[in-house]
Design a protein that fits this description.
Layout lengths: L1 E5 L9 H7 L2 E5 L3 H7 L6 E4 L4 E2 L1 H8 L6 E4 L2 E4 L1 H13 L7 H11 L14 E2 L4 H12 L3 H8 L7 H20 L4 H19 L4 H28 L4 H28 L7 H24 L9 H10 L2 H10 L3 H14 L2 H29 L6 H11 L3 H8 L1 H4 L6 H20 L5 H18 L11 H20 L4 H24 L7 H6 L2 H15 L3 H26 L16
Parallel strand pairs: 1-2, 1-3
Antiparallel strand pairs: 3-6, 4-7, 5-6
Helix pairs in contact: 4-5, 8-10, 9-10, 9-11, 10-11, 10-15, 11-12, 11-23, 12-16, 12-17, 12-22, 12-23, 15-16, 17-22, 18-21, 20-21, 20-22, 21-25, 22-23, 22-25, 23-26, 25-26
């Protein structure tokens, strides 16, 4: 139970006490704020509210119930979670003259002491402590003129989202979110329902029948509606949680890639017995590499100084022309447009057609976004920070072999502006050109090329990683690792090799996504012992090439399956342990960036 301390008796007719109770607070009215604060257990959230507060219920909700911030305030109201309780007690003892409002004086004191106090954007919502009856009546009239429920419902939707989501889903999914909130459903429950719906859709696709494909398309769209609803429910009711952050961050990829697998199974079981596993794996590889480009670029420039470029300025000018904003959001094929495309094509065409269109569309989107980021990087004059360099090193996912190469040969290579991406591309070329173009996959020559890849990859990460294009290093490594697994499985011709390779890449991709979301949350990458345990990207590449050289036929399939199961077990165990721990961050995507 949270406690709200009213620092005096509210005026007659005030609904403040009822409002606070409706938000889940145990309300105490007292003139002795210090004594009341000391009586509240240190493990509870506490709020101090001026008895003269006038405003919307949702303004209080935003200020006093958001779990993401240790301290938050609006005019006339302040809250502190257990992490900030000691600072609040100190501030209360230091405030000798609170003036008109004790909560406002305490918030100012906390900020002066270096405590970050979140002040939510209220927009048209009212939160004030009017002085005198006339001012109070005027403020009440201003509050009455605004429908805070309509504002709450509108703000449940991301301010920046894709065209399909904005115009085809959110107009009604926000009402579904409110329906869920009024029935006590949580965002995590809706997220789980979205996953289950997508898995059922994948199962329908796996039947290989036209009816199954139609049902799969419809269910995939409904799964996306629920996917939008869970975030809107979290914003509507401020039900953010650590577990919710993990579920929201990982389930989208699990749903999409499970649907790819369902389509591949359906194609093989349908009347044509079409084998599209290579296309399914190719789509997953392309999508994951594209996301890594986005993540690495954003991390490299997260806190860059002098963050300007002509390309960015042009983008800003285009944003002033409304229709260009939507066109540019659509052509990058974000999750809404992508899932709608997959759903419609699944219902009307064949799995092979779905993957062909998806690969072409995603390849174009990847080229468009990557080219734009390269131009920005080349034309911007920015100084990257040590934090950005560490993030890129963590995203590189280097194991023991690359680390050894970095500590030996890497130290002798001079660091220049473009050294890191040069060595990364050279490493990928050495790994992929031979097996994929000359057909040397499954031989010991491919193993030697994997060793060269590991050494050159170590040289790449030995660089400072502060160059303008160093953010390309992680996606190059992802493309090389996933690409060699796809290439060797396809060349082997072994029964079940491509489905096993699909599982292996899915397990590794989960690890890479998990790394991204941990870095985003400010807790750093997974523990290095985990990266070492699963070999790093170069260790896994070497293991797969050795397996291809040692075993052929079903032996290679078994090796891929065992490797996939082992990596999935280790990675999932550590990931679940981290995300359900109390120290994990409750980070939710509020940017609206395409996924």
């Amino acid at each position: 139970m949270s406690t709200a301390i009213l620092t005096g008796t509210p005026p007659a007719g005030s609904s403040l006490e009822e409002d606070l109770r409706s938000l889940g607070f145990d309300v105490r009215v007292t003139e002795d704020a210090a004594g009341a604060l000391a009586a509240v257990p240190a493990t509870e959230r506490v709020a101090l509210v001026d008895p003269g507060f006038v405003g919307h219920l949702h303004a209080l909700r935003l200020a006093l119930t958001d779990p993401r911030f240790p301290a938050a305030a609006v005019e006339g109201a302040l809250t502190a979670q257990p992490d900030a309780r000691a600072s609040l007690t100190h501030a209360l003892s230091a405030v000798t003259d609170a003036g008109a409002s004790l909560p406002d004086a305490l918030a100012a004191r906390l900020e002066a002491d270096g405590i970050a106090v979140h002040r939510p954007e209220l927009g048209v919502l009212v939160a004030a402590v009017p002085d005198g009856d006339d001012a109070r009546a005027k403020t009440l009239a201003e509050a009455g003129a605004v429908d805070d429920e309509a504002v709450r419902l509108r703000n449940a939707v991301k301010s920046r989202d894709g065209f399909f989501t904005t115009f085809c889903i959110s107009p009604y999914s926000r009402y579904l979110a409110r329906w869920c909130a009024r029935r006590g459903l949580t965002p995590n429950q809706v997220t789980t329902a979205s996953l289950l719906t997508a898995l059922i859709a994948a199962g329908c696709a796996a039947t290989g029948t036209r009816g199954g494909f139609v049902a799969a398309g419809a269910l995939l769209l409904f799964s996306f509606v629920l996917d939008c609803t869970d975030g809107q429910l979290a914003r509507y009711s401020l039900q953010y949680s650590t577990l919710g952050a993990w579920l929201d961050a990982t389930f989208d990829r699990a749903k999409e890639y499970a649907f790819y697998a369902g389509l591949a199974l359906g194609a093989s079981r349908g009347g044509g017995h079409d084998d599209v596993w290579a296309l399914a794996l190719g789509a997953m590889v392309l999508m994951t590499c594209r996301h890594v480009v986005d993540f690495a670029f954003n991390e490299a420039n997260h806190d860059a100084t002098a963050n300007t470029s002509p390309t960015a300025a042009l983008s800003g000018r285009l944003d002033s022309v409304g229709w260009t904003v939507w066109v540019r959001r659509m052509i990058v094929l974000p999750i809404g447009e992508r899932w709608a495309l997959i759903a419609v094509l699944t219902a009307l065409t064949t799995p092979r057609t779905v993957f062909y269109v998806l690969l072409i569309g995603c390849a174009f989107a990847a080229c468009y976004t990557t080219a734009g980021r390269v131009l920005r990087s080349l034309t911007r004059k920015a100084k990257r920070t040590d934090r950005a360099a560490q993030a890129l090193a963590d995203l590189a996912d280097s194991g023991p072999i690359a680390e050894a190469a970095a500590g030996s040969l890497g130290r002798t290579v001079p660091g220049r502006a473009y050294s890191a991406p040069f060595w990364a591309v050279l490493a990928a070329a050495c790994l992929l050109i031979g097996p994929l173009l000359t057909g040397s996959g499954g031989t010991w020559r491919a193993v030697l090329q994997a060793v060269v890849y590991a050494v050159f990859a170590g040289v790449a990460v030995a660089q400072p990683l502060k160059g303008p294009l160093d953010w390309l290093v992680p996606p190059v490594f992802r493309g090389a690792e996933y690409g060699i697994v796809l290439g060797l499985a396809a060349q082997s011709g072994a029964p079940g090799a491509l489905p096993a390779a699909f599982g292996l890449v899915a397990a590794v991709a989960y690890h890479h996504y998990d790394t991204v979301y941990r870095i985003r949350g400010g807790t750093g990458a997974p523990p290095h012992r985990l990266v070492r345990a699963i070999g790093g990207h170069e260790g896994r590449v070497l293991a797969v090439t050795i397996a291809a050289a040692l075993w052929h036929g079903r032996g290679f399939t078994i090796a891929l399956t065992v490797l996939a199961a082992a990596i999935a077990l280790v990675v999932l165990s550590e990931s679940i342990r981290f995300w359900v721990s109390s120290g994990a961050p409750a980070v939710h995507d509020e940017t609206g960036e395409p996924a």
